[in-house]
Amino acid sequence: MNEQAVYLSDKLNAILAGAGSLLPELVLVLFFLLLVTLDLFKAKSIKRLLPWLALTGMFWVLVLQVLGGYTSGDEPFLNLLLSDGLARFGGILFSAAGIFTVLLSLQLKRLEKLQEGRGEFYALVLILVLGLNLMAKSVNLLMVFLAIETVSIASYILTLTFKTEKRAVEAGLKYVLYGALSAGVMLYGMSFFYGLTGTLNFSSENFVMGLLQADGLLVTVAAILILAGFFFKISAAPFHFWAPDVYQGAPMPVVALFSTGPKMAGILVILRFINNFTDATAFADVQLLLGVAAIATLVVGNFTALWQRTPRRLLAYSSVSHAGFLLTALLAFGTSYTSGVLFYLTVLLFMNFGIFLLLQVAEEKNGVQTLEDFSGLGRLQPYFGVMAILYLLSLTGLPPLAGFMGKLLIFSNVWEAYTLGGNNMLLVLLVTGILLTGVALFYYIKIPYYLFFKRNQSRENLVISPSEKLLLALFALPLLVLFFKPDLLLRWIEQLLAQTL
């Protein structure tokens, strides 16, 4: 009895000692409960307060993450969560994505007019950000699974925000089916790893030693199964089929969040996980698997985007191609590729929210549904046209915008890794990425072509509100600044990574 009491006391002390590392997540839970409670009241004044309350909660969390100091980050919390520099930077990106999502939702009149579910919408955004934070901090396979499922469940419901629309219901159903399949496969792979290593903590030395002593074929099979779940979250081939339908059926602020938040968190999880497979002699098959997945994602994303006639589906496959570039970056073993990955994720956050805000304005104000519907809008509204060109050039990876610097860092790291190790797969990845950047220009350039070179068949003028113009400028400014001064962000990233174990 005394031994049990001592054990429980030690565990309780460990929980209390590590509770500070979960301060951002505790704040998110507090505001979630507050939103759900206030949504029970029918007063219009309270309903109008809900989005601003959500903004307050996420801004508070953003400040906590930027300032730091709430945790030492010395060791994992109960061997489940690690609050290091990598998780902290991820938390900053997730909080920013949540804030941007709410700001976009305030510009969407259809959402503002929603009679039921507005409170749940903002509460679910908070829960999704909470799940993303847990994904970035997780160093335990079971904790990774729970965090991914938290994000997935919130995502399924957010997809069905406009549940009276047939397209939204179809997208939500497909999303749930694909998610359930990938979750089951991933959990099966995790059970393999536990059987092979005897531990779920994939940051421990015992995990790595267990993998080195296990049969290589079993390790490869388990890696394939577990990476299937990770690939689903970042919409990498061949687990990308949900993306076009979900992007087509979900509200635009939700689409912008899906294209950034889960993708960023998934990449951070993969980044932590593959650190166990850097030994090329022991895990050559796993590295080959990642390389093939990266090439397939690049090819599928870019070439499928060429044939799209609707902007939402085009941007969905564009998001798939960006997942391919990020997977390519993760294979540059032996280099400081983590800084390049985090830089690219930061740039992707601003690029995607900017282009999806433009599309939201075009859909709501001019009923744009196909690429042809953009005809002449750039000449009627030069501000809209110039911003569209800016974001699309950055998504392509052309100067003078930060998208160019992001891809340059990735390609530089891959070339450095190739010169160090002589792995021909890296050379293939490098050539493929450069060539497909050229392919991307062909489908991105379609939108400016319609904006400026096609005649407008409609007499309606595109009206952009001052708040929308301000948001577009807010998202565009970092893309210009980080092209000319990328070291501003890279130095900060390196300082944060110095805290990573």
TrEMBL record:
<dbReference type="InterPro" id="IPR001750">
    <property type="entry name" value="ND/Mrp_TM"/>
</dbReference>
<dbReference type="Pfam" id="PF00361">
    <property type="entry name" value="Proton_antipo_M"/>
</dbReference>
<keyword id="KW-0813">Transport</keyword>
<keyword id="KW-0472">Membrane</keyword>
<comment type="function">
    <text>NDH-1 shuttles electrons from NADH, via FMN and iron-sulfur (Fe-S) centers, to quinones in the respiratory chain. The immediate electron acceptor for the enzyme in this species is believed to be a menaquinone. Couples the redox reaction to proton translocation (for every two electrons transferred, four hydrogen ions are translocated across the cytoplasmic membrane), and thus conserves the redox energy in a proton gradient.</text>
</comment>
<keyword id="KW-1278">Translocase</keyword>
<feature type="transmembrane region" description="Helical">
    <location>
        <begin position="425"/>
        <end position="445"/>
    </location>
</feature>
<keyword id="KW-1003">Cell membrane</keyword>
<keyword id="KW-0520">NAD</keyword>
<feature type="transmembrane region" description="Helical">
    <location>
        <begin position="254"/>
        <end position="274"/>
    </location>
</feature>
<feature type="transmembrane region" description="Helical">
    <location>
        <begin position="120"/>
        <end position="136"/>
    </location>
</feature>
<feature type="transmembrane region" description="Helical">
    <location>
        <begin position="216"/>
        <end position="242"/>
    </location>
</feature>
<feature type="transmembrane region" description="Helical">
    <location>
        <begin position="466"/>
        <end position="484"/>
    </location>
</feature>
<feature type="domain" description="NADH:quinone oxidoreductase/Mrp antiporter transmembrane">
    <location>
        <begin position="138"/>
        <end position="420"/>
    </location>
</feature>
<protein>
    <recommendedName>
        <fullName>NADH-quinone oxidoreductase subunit N</fullName>
        <ecNumber>7.1.1.-</ecNumber>
    </recommendedName>
</protein>
<feature type="transmembrane region" description="Helical">
    <location>
        <begin position="383"/>
        <end position="405"/>
    </location>
</feature>
<keyword id="KW-1133">Transmembrane helix</keyword>
<feature type="transmembrane region" description="Helical">
    <location>
        <begin position="142"/>
        <end position="163"/>
    </location>
</feature>
<dbReference type="InterPro" id="IPR010096">
    <property type="entry name" value="NADH-Q_OxRdtase_suN/2"/>
</dbReference>
<comment type="similarity">
    <text>Belongs to the complex I subunit 2 family.</text>
</comment>
<feature type="transmembrane region" description="Helical">
    <location>
        <begin position="175"/>
        <end position="196"/>
    </location>
</feature>
<feature type="transmembrane region" description="Helical">
    <location>
        <begin position="314"/>
        <end position="335"/>
    </location>
</feature>
<keyword id="KW-0874">Quinone</keyword>
<comment type="subunit">
    <text>NDH-1 is composed of 14 different subunits. Subunits NuoA, H, J, K, L, M, N constitute the membrane sector of the complex.</text>
</comment>
<feature type="transmembrane region" description="Helical">
    <location>
        <begin position="87"/>
        <end position="108"/>
    </location>
</feature>
<feature type="transmembrane region" description="Helical">
    <location>
        <begin position="49"/>
        <end position="67"/>
    </location>
</feature>
<feature type="transmembrane region" description="Helical">
    <location>
        <begin position="12"/>
        <end position="37"/>
    </location>
</feature>
<feature type="transmembrane region" description="Helical">
    <location>
        <begin position="286"/>
        <end position="307"/>
    </location>
</feature>
<feature type="transmembrane region" description="Helical">
    <location>
        <begin position="341"/>
        <end position="362"/>
    </location>
</feature>
<keyword id="KW-0812">Transmembrane</keyword>
